[in-house]
Amino acid sequence: MVEKTKRAKRISGAKGVMAAAVFVAGLLCAASLFAATRADVDDFLKSYESYVVEWENLAKKSSVSAEEMSRLMEKGQGFEQTALTVVNGSEWTAEDQQKVEALNQRLNQAVLTVSQKIMTAYQ
């Protein structure tokens, strides 16, 4: 009974990680629409892509630790704050929007892969 409870908590935690990453991606996309300058937009896109690559690298690993996921979740929270400070500009372009949408798709896939690995490990 205790083992089933532990497994259920781990699985629900993995689902929470996926939901949080999707939330951060959506928030970053929305916040980036109001970037202050072209340099701010470029910095945002570069930072966001780097964050997505970190999730993709985690998804490529054969096993994932809770510490690794926690680190990325924390980084996402800090990244969210950074994105929220980049506001009130008019430099955002359709090309920038397309890039963020592509990055969001990559992030969603990476988070899904990580979540599936965690759920499989605890079944």
SSE order and pairing:
Blueprint: H1 2-32, H2 38-60, H3 66-85, H4 94-121
Helix pairs in contact: 1-3, 1-4, 2-3, 2-4
Q: Short summary of the structure?
A:
The protein is mostly helical.
Overall description:
This protein has 123 residues and is mainly α. The chain has one domain. The protein is built from 4 helices and no strands. It has helices at 2-32, 38-60, 66-85, 94-121. The two termini are 14 Å apart.
Classification by helices and strands: mainly alpha
Count up the helices: 4
**How many structural units, i.e. domains?**
1
Mass-distribution shape: elongated
Number of strands: 0
Order of helices and strands: HHHH
Q: Roughly how much helix do the residues carry, as a percent range?
A: over 70%
**Mean of residue pLDDT values:** 76
List the uncertain runs: none
Biggest sheet overview:
none
What fraction of the residues are assigned to beta strands by DSSP?
Answer: under 5%
Radius of gyration in whole Å, from Cα?
16 Å
Q: Give the terminus-to-terminus CA distance.
A: 14 Å
